[in-house]
Fold each of these.
Amino acid sequence: MTVESSALYDVPGPKALARHRLYGGIALLAIAALLGWIVYMLFHTQQFTESKWMAFEYKGVQELLLRGLGNTLKAFGWTVLFALPFGALFAAGRLSDHRPVRMLSTLVVEFFRAMPLLVMIFFIFVALKVAPLWALVAGLVLYNGSVLAEVFRAGVLAVPKGQKEAAFALGMRKTQVMAYVLVPQANRAMLPAIISQLVVALKDTSLGFLITYEEFLHAGKLIATNLDYDLPFIPVVMVIAPIYIGMCLLLSWFARWVERQSRRRPSMRGGAPVASAEVAMGLPPAAQQ
Amino acid sequence: MKTLTDNWSTYWEGFLGTLSLFLVSAVLALVLGVLIASFRVSPVRPLRVFGTAWVTLLRNTPLTLLFFIVVLGLPRFDITLPFFTFAVLALGCYTSAFVCEAMRAGVNTVPVGQGEAARSLGMSFGQTMGLVVLPQAYRSVVAPIGSVMIALAKNTAIAGSFSVTELLGTYRTINELGYSIVWTFVWIAVGYLIITLAVSLVFNLLERRVAVAR
């Protein structure tokens, strides 16, 4: 038994262990029943007939799916490319010595974090009449860039104060202090949080589906609503969902791995505290303070 | 301003749609989240595994994909519900994973000694939980739950594209009537801001009430 040590339960004795085993058995049965019901429904509604799966044998369909996946990754790539500089720029703006710059950056960052991402994407798509890909990328960059700006800012602020004071005492200028002392240390500390935010960006590329961007989900919908293939909706989900979730999981695990690596490394000691690699839903934990 | 006053009833309907969607999904997410969190910290292994799988899967699923599966997939299982219920299911399940993690993190911040002390005073499990552990966990949970709820309010926008009446969806109706599209979106944005700001206000008040110097 590897229960995390928490204040909730005592170390179980023989009676408690027997009881836990009983509960475990009941829970196993319930979970098995749930899974069994799903499998039964799959067979009952005839999801494994040949006519529903043959679509995936066609080269055209395979290419359609691959092109969709490529488009998803393309949108993600552009987002990463633009969101990181955007975040760095506005983080620098919020840390600036000049009050107007600071206020303007705060306004931009807070506004784009508060707006629902989809509203921004629809606004850019419908009102500004931008092509779907660029509407999606622009929305993702504005939102994720703003969140990243907060991550960067929190990271720089988390570097122990002595580092900055020592750098100034050595006669460095403020740009040098930032570039040679604060950012390199903050960078290692906040890498997990950055990658976690990229998972959010990857998940949100699927919003392109709603503005008819021809991404992965869109390709799936095209196949699923095709009468020639007997409306293979469930098969399409069974193909698409594992790929989507797999990509996000890989990136999440990568974030956690980076976190563990930087925690373990002794050279990190005394540096900025490592941000945790939580998959953020709205705001990363570090940005809330 | 004319865009707002002329289409007040459309906006109001959409606003109410978003609000009710948010409130119902929030209740579902909180209930499910607490349940899954109690699974994840329980000493029963199958429940722990189930909780972990639930959280890992849902946190790494794009919400649009989840909507796609729930709204278009469940009818294939001969489960036909109103679109509103489907949307609540998708939003509630998705958010429950984040609520669960916030709750679990909160419970884990309570020092082990607190529970041990309560038990050695002869408190039963219910007393330990209700009088000692949960009141302390509650304080550190309020802020994270608040930001999860704000994210949920923003995510309700997706439901509009799946045939649910809500605020973002109103742009189509108003757009067809030939109103300025920029202003249409400005008022939609204001509607969302009202909801998110109200949520953050409520949670800020709660946070201040339970704040304690550590």
Note: Confidence is low (pLDDT under 50) at residues 283-289 of chain A.
Amino acid sequence: MTEMFANLGLGFGIALTLKNIALCFVGCLVGTLVGVLPGVGPVATIAMLLPITFGLDPVGALIMLAGIYYGAQYGGSTTAILVNIPGEATAVVTTLDGHQMAKQGRAGVALGTAAIGSFVAGCFATLIIAALGAPLTRLALLFGPAEYFSLMVMGLCFAVVLARGSILKAFCMIMLGLLLSTVGTDLETGQERMTFGFPPLADGVDFAVLAMGVFGFAEVLRNLENPEARDVVRSKIGRLLPDWNDIKQSTAPVLRGTFIGGILGILPGNGAVLGPFASYTLEKKIAKDPSRFGKGAIEGVAGPESANNAGAQTAFIPLLTLGIPPNAVMALMVGAMTIHGIIPGPQVMTKNPDLFWGMIASMWIGNLMLLVINLPLVGLWVKLLQVPYRLMFPAILIFCSIGIYSVNNQPVDVIFTALFGLFGYLLIKLGFEPAPMLLGFVLGKLMEEKLRQALIISRGSFMTFIERPISAGLLVVAVAILVIALLPSMSKKRDEVFTE
Amino acid sequence: MKKAALGLAAALTLALAGGAGAQGYPTKPITMIVPFAAGGPTDIIARMVSENMSKTLGQQIVIENVAGAGGTTGITRALTAAPDGYTIAMGHLGTFSAAPATYPNLKYDPIDGLQAIGLAGGTPILIVARKNLDATDLKGFVAAVKASPDKFNEAHAGVGSVSWTTCTLLKGQLGVPKLNSVAYRGTGPALNDLVSGQIDFMCDQIVSVAEQVKAGTIKAYAIASAERSPALPDVPTTKEAGLPEYQIEAWNGIVAPKGTPKEAVDKLVAALDKALNDENTKKRLMDLGTVIPTAAERTPEGFAALIKRDAEKLSPALKAAPK
């Protein structure tokens, strides 16, 4: 314990130099700004800014890049709440209740809750990394393909609970999401599937393209159809920051979200994606009145936002302790470290203690900065809602298009987004929810990959999912969720959970 | 948007210049397409080399990452661009030597359909295994694999990746092309499962695995190069360890569209050569375990010959691989 504080002391000594504080601030600010821009994700930003860090020392460069990463996670929720566009997979659930709150004139409260919740989660996650980083590494290594598949199955069961309307429609959307995720080159064989011989589809559908389309573009179409309703939303601004009652309501969800998000964030292969979904499901399940969810329940913002931020931080654990990147952003961090002559591996902690502890200390400072940057910005963001929609919607479309183009530098991606926008509009008209589809899409890719890996390793035996204790445990939970949802004796309660 | 504006500016300048060719080349920034995500091994080498080349050429080389289809999307775009010296690309073993055998619908010909500039760096390939695998050396490993290939699982980063290409060659040479292979999305997740012992072995670039080998979380049987690497001096070469025919490197090199003016080619070749002689650039590349190319490999002829040689070496194994 004393060792940990000595190490943290070393870390703060490094992170609190004027230069590193400045770099941390720049990173957080840039991250927040790109996070707010729909579609410009942290991956594209870090890739673009990588060359700028050449001139810096490695610790400073990584502090800045890490700032961009969690800053972007933070900024993403702003767009999700204000204009109903999830920039990242992790912000999808925030649109459910966050945007509803905005519609009720509680945008400021939603943004404030997201900011404070993220700060609390970030503080706890930093402590977790400092105290338990090394032992928790083992968790990442316990999860082989079989365990991971079972976790995804459990995640899909969450998706059913996400549904706001008909359970059948939600189920259809999950299946559609799974189907969309199978488009592209088969990972094991290299065979093209459902691409119609059209080269741009060879790598499948990009998440940003699908999300910007069915959420962003479709939302614009819907609002244009009914401009008067939009103006009503604008006229009500309400309080800017959460009051005592809001804070009381969100404390427990924030803590639960931090725990769930923090654990899932450690898992390899982007387990952090599941965090916000799991947190939302939990909050909805244990709420006294689940019917409030989807209509602007503050717990539906506080929990998932905390889970998101906690996961974003603990995702650094496998990178810093094992030298193995768990997701695309972390792979980019590996690149950044490599450029600076630090090749990530299991010995970073002992070989480069200044880097390891400096980064951890900077995460806490970064979270504080995000709070400092974001709370004053809440007023500004909320004012943005007062901009007349005829000026707002072209701006949204232009920023979405720039963001999508920046992901792969492919013009065809923008066209695809427009097509998905039309499709999303059709879904809205028919009363289908896009959120379960996005969850199905995100989990589908991972699920198929892990299923096939597990089966190849087990030589085709499905028993592997039951024989391995962790995998079996996760499947039991999945079955339990389904049984609770489907048992006839629970049907009355189920109606309360699943229908508005 | 910056890139789009740049592209627009480039197009305008080109239109105004009226095809004046490469007079006084280069007069504007050069785009180098990297057909993989930023931060990957090819991207890192491209950024290190292009930084120094920009100084020599007096114009910035702008890296554009165009990922997709094992790098063939980006290379296709580069090779179909106007051959004016302002679009070049950095590709690797996979995109040039392996792609013709891997992608039946490939839209470019890496042997005759491009202008090679030069090799930028070679990255040795290692055969690595989980730390508790029985075999203690390469001979033991080869014997065990040959005796019961169905007991082993090999991991790779997807069909067309360097790890897949080089391991398919290994399996072909060992006569076990059907050995169980497990695909991952990228080297990171594959390495994770190798460290945790879910899978048995893989072939990968030294930069990805060296630190794990040093820490003892995985073990290395051999390095598939002519000489040992200073990064891992204790790992024997395949020649020393008894599998001399397995020689393969994951090199990265620069190409331009066919028909690029000679003046531009010459200047690019000279700039690459100068970058690879620069002590600072050299040191940074060598820190990654990269082998600095010889004078002959830095020339268009030398690089073209390398592409052809490795294509011939890989083609039989890749074509026979179960897909």
Note: The longest strand of chain B covers residues 114-121.
